[in-house]
Amino acid sequence: MTVPRSEYLSSAWADGIFANRVLFITGGAGSIGSAQTRALVHLGADACIIGRNVAKTKAAAKEIAKVRPGARVIGIGAVDVRNFEDLKSAADHCVKELGGIDFVVAGAAGNFIAPISGLSSNAFKAVMDIDTIGTFNTIKATMPYLIESASKNPNPNPAGTTGGRFLSTSATFHYTGMPLQAHVSAAKAAIDSLMGSVSLEYGPYGITANTIAPGAIEGTEGMERLASTEISRDQRTKGVPSGRWGTVRDIADATVFVFSDAGNYVNGTNIVVDGAGWRRQGGL
Length: 284
Ligand code: HXC
What we know:
This is 2,4-dienoyl-CoA reductase [(3E)-enoyl-CoA-producing]. By secondary structure, the chain is of the alpha/beta class. It is built from 10 helices and 7 strands. The chain binds hexanoyl-coenzyme A. Residues 109-112, 114, 118-120, 122-123, 126-127, 130, 171, 184, 214, 221-222 line the site of hexanoyl-coenzyme A. The site of hexanoyl-coenzyme A has 18 residues, from α4 and α7.
């Protein structure tokens, strides 16, 4: 069954704004990543979805391609973002098949609930490696292609098209600290810092580098783990000033904004999409 547009994209955006653009996304088969990909592909982009699980990644690519006749969406599996060479091959393959890379989303993440007393050094490291080193590897593997994209599509571009955009998935945990999420909180803080440095070093090339920090998002693996009982679900909903959990569409719309011409001057920053949740109750 085709996923209706209203589930992954608002009516604010015009069809075709991302024509001739290519997205490279890690974690693109996940709930947030597939909505981000679906939205960009709907608006004209082609995409390479990168994941660890081959079958899941290829199935997601096939499904997402249905949103637009003629869309090219490739699933590249068996890629562990902790391994730079895996990512480098995936980026090269993407360029060979689709002609370039204009937008990069580093969305792959690892998470589990554990108190500090229950975290081994290796457990802490596993999440730092997937989230932070994985983001670094993704940036490093795709940077030459983004520089090329930005040089072809300068920012701002009188022709109205853009290129050379990095986006990482962050969180709000580290603004206050977060019990049971020390590992994730530390990893996301490092990602925010890393993206700031990318914006400083590569802004002069016309590249932008930003992060999106989602709040509690319906239907995600992360929230299934973090709010697994009705009580904690109700408590979390009451703590969100906007009165509801977010949707994957909220994150996809913010992604479209930062990659669109409307986002040309948004660089080196973090966009929090959480209904003001962190201001009331900390990270989530
Ligand atoms: C304590 C745990 C643990 C747990 C694993 N470990 N689960 N420790 N409590 N619940 C420990 C292991 O014992 C081991 O340490 C170390 O972590 C590495 O575990 P492995 O299973 O060997 O690692 P690996 O196979 O690489 O798996 C990584 C993983 C796993 C992070 C543990 O959960 C994973 O692959 N996740 C990917 C999918 C995922 O998590 N998606 C959710 C993303 S949601 P020892 O010492 O025994 O060797 C998300 C939302 C963030 O990120 C919040 C946003 C708002």
